[in-house]
Design brief:
By secondary structure, this protein is α+β, with helices and mostly antiparallel strands. It is built from 7 helices and 14 strands. It has one domain: PPM-type phosphatase domain (Phosphatase 2c, domain 1, 4-Layer Sandwich), CATH 3.60.40.10. The relative contact order is 0.16.
């Protein structure tokens, strides 16, 4: 046989190996959550409201409210907005080609050492918003806390999963006094995620008869002394200084795992067929205890990856993949450089950029500018000192 025959045979074998490898990854790697559903795949179910957890001092769920109600001002924890669909207005895409209206932005007026804002938008394709977030203070302005949750599951399951997780963390903070020290504070946030994971599994399996609904989560806590963070899934936290990226969380996805193992180039990740498959999430049909929260608190040494070392003017940005999946990294960096001193403006511009890129997914953004002891009237944006990209 001539050489061309063997060359064609070898090429066919290579193609079969690549196809088999992708198929095996889709079957063997979901020790994780299911892939996110594509827009319009499933009809949406109106989620049932969760029973509220009473504030231990006030006897009611202070801080949890519907859109038309005024925020509660009772209890140890004060939150700007409730962790539900009323946390901010979700603007549905117009049926005509009229440009989308800007999202309504929630701003955190206190504490004085921080400027913060948040908003969410349903996007231009999906019929409902399955993102949830909260933003508020914990311990009478001693700490600011924020969280973003991006649900998945179809038939309204993602909507409900994100709501359950968000309210689990929110209600735990509401009923817990702010402890001393970062390790104890980290443990409270971690416990909130585990309670959310368990509640999603129980609610989905026992009440609704399905176990595939899940959600991502990214949380941060900032104080006048610094901050800490933890996450699960592919919702991200970015830390900027002087407009330069210092750190971002590492996505818990199959594609990121392939990149880490040298099996995929970073530039190939955005178009890979497994880009939407998570390796960890809250709920999601995996066995209890399989959720992985990163970074873990290091009990053996002084180095703490979960801790954020902040300088006046630093920006902490949380988002769902409706932003990170639509807006290229260099474009996001440009937005931070242009609008990072004004969190409310930055949030609006980020959402508009996601919509301008197609708005294929729900998008949620929280921007927190840490002022520390600096005079709030003075612009503070020191140059970046070190760049550490863990993505």
């Amino acid at each position: 046989m001539d050489k061309s025959f063997w060359k064609k045979l070898g090429k066919l074998a290579l193609n079969l190996a690549v196809a088999l490898g992708t198929a095996l990854a889709m079957v063997l790697l979901p020790t994780c959550c299911q892939a996110r559903e594509e827009p319009g795949d499933e009809p949406q179910m109106e989620p049932a409201k969760l029973p509220t957890k009473a504030d231990p001092e006030e006897g009611d769920a202070s801080g949890v409210r519907e859109a038309e109600e005024a925020p509660a001002e009772t209890g140890e924890t004060q939150f700007k907005d409730a962790p539900n669909e009323a946390a901010t207005a979700e603007l549905q895409a117009a049926p005509d080609p009229t440009p989308p209206a800007p999202p309504q932005t929630i701003e955190l007026g206190d504490p004085p050492w921080l400027e913060a804002a948040a908003a969410t938008h349903v996007g231009l394709v999906r019929p409902a918003n399955e993102d949830r977030f909260f933003l508020g203070t914990w311990g009478s302005q001693e700490a600011a806390v924020a969280g973003v949750f991006d649900g998945m599951g179809g038939h309204g399951g993602g909507d409900l999963a994100a709501q359950i997780a968000c309210q689990s963390v929110f209600h735990l903070l509401q009923g817990t006094a702010l402890p001393d020290g970062d390790p104890a504070r980290y443990e409270v946030l971690l416990r909130g995620l585990y309670e959310g994971d368990g509640a999603i599994r129980w609610r989905g399996k026992m009440e609704l008869g399905r176990d595939n609904m899940g959600t991502t989560a990214v949380l941060t806590l900032l104080t006048p002394d610094g901050g800490l963070h933890l996450h699960c899934g592919d919702s991200r936290l970015y830390h900027y200084r002087g407009g330069e990226l210092l750190f971002k969380t590492r996505d818990q996805t199959v594609v990121q795992m392939l990149v880490d193992n040298g099996q995929l180039l970073p530039e190939e990740a955005a178009s890979h067929p497994l880009r939407a498959r998570l390796t960890s999430c809250l709920g999601g049909g995996t066995s209890p205890g399989s959720m992985v929260v990163e970074p873990a608190w290091n009990r053996e040494g002084a180095e703490q990856p979960a801790r954020l070392t902040l300088q006046p003017g630093d920006l902490v940005l949380l988002c769902s993949d409706g932003l990170s999946g639509e807006v290229p990294p260099e474009a996001l960096d440009h937005l931070v450089q242009a609008h990072g001193r004004h969190p409310a403006t930055l949030v609006r511009e980020c959402i508009q950029a996601a919509l301008a890129s197609g708005g294929h997914d729900n998008v949620t953004v929280v921007a927190m500018r840490w002022l520390g002891e600096a005079d709030q009237g003075e612009p503070v944006d020191p140059p970046a000192t070190k760049e550490v990209d863990q993505g």
